[in-house]
Amino acid sequence: MRATEQLGRYQLLDLVAQDEGVDGRPDVYLWHAYDEVLDRPVAVRVMSADDPRAPAVLGAAQAAALVDDRRLLRVLDILNLTATAQDPARIAVVSEWASGRNLERTLQDRGGTPFAAPEALSLVADVARAIAAGLAENVSHGRLRPSSVFITDAGEVRIRGLAVDAAVFGPLPGDDTTAPRDPGQADVDALGSLVYLLTTGYWPGSVAITAPSASTTSWPDQ
């Protein structure tokens, strides 16, 4: 795929992330794009239509689009793209653009310095309210992690990837990776992990998040 490519009303600007396929899976791309009709930035995730994950991704995007909460970066559009001379048939999920910094970058910019407990609890409470809005519609996030949560320049909390991230990359593993993990319980566990991260600088089971040049822990911005 190429920057400046046009997908309907959306112009692809910058490639944010590329998940290189493993075990025969095609690549998945996340683009910063521009909606020429509504004159605003958007995020566009693109994958091959014959990817075995595509039906689950489409279903997740359709379900996530029905959840209404200002803290969630909403799914705005779902595209089925026919094959061209340059590209195979693809699907694309268009979402609100995540402005601001995610929690991983926020902690890196703080040099790994934790938040005060009241501030951390207030931030995670906002995340929990957004997750609860999804669960009220029987839609879980399934892959809630530091790079899923953004703090805007205005100090608002926004959450990316409801249902869709887990459909693309799989749910976050639990303690027992041999058994299926309930998505709702995974979200509850992730909320506890976010509290721990913000108050200690550590994600449970990993090293501390420090400055970007020294960080050995990474959650790709996907």
Determine the fraction of residues in helical runs and give it as a percent range.
Answer: 25-40%
Unreliable residue runs: 211-222
Name the CATH superfamily assignment of the largest domain: Transferase(Phosphotransferase) domain 1
The coarse overall form would be globular
Q: What is the second-level CATH architecture of the largest domain?
A: Orthogonal Bundle
In terms of DSSP E residues, the strand content is: 15-25%
- Rg is 17 Å
Mean pLDDT across all amino acids: 86
* Count of DSSP H/I helices: 5
Strand order of the largest sheet: 1-2-3-4-6-5
> What class do helices, strands and sheet pairing give?
alpha+beta
Structure description:
The chain is of the alpha+beta class and 222 residues long. It folds into two domains: 13-96, Phosphorylase Kinase, domain 1 (2-Layer Sandwich); 101-200, Orthogonal Bundle (Transferase(Phosphotransferase), domain 1), CATH 1.10.510.10. The protein is 28% helix and 23% strand. It contains five helices and nine strands; from the N terminus they run E-E-E-E-H-E-E-E-H-H-E-E-H-H. It has a six-stranded antiparallel β-sheet, with helices on one face. Strands 7-8-9 form a three-stranded antiparallel β-sheet. Helix 3 runs antiparallel to helix 5 (183-200). It is globular and about 55 Å long.
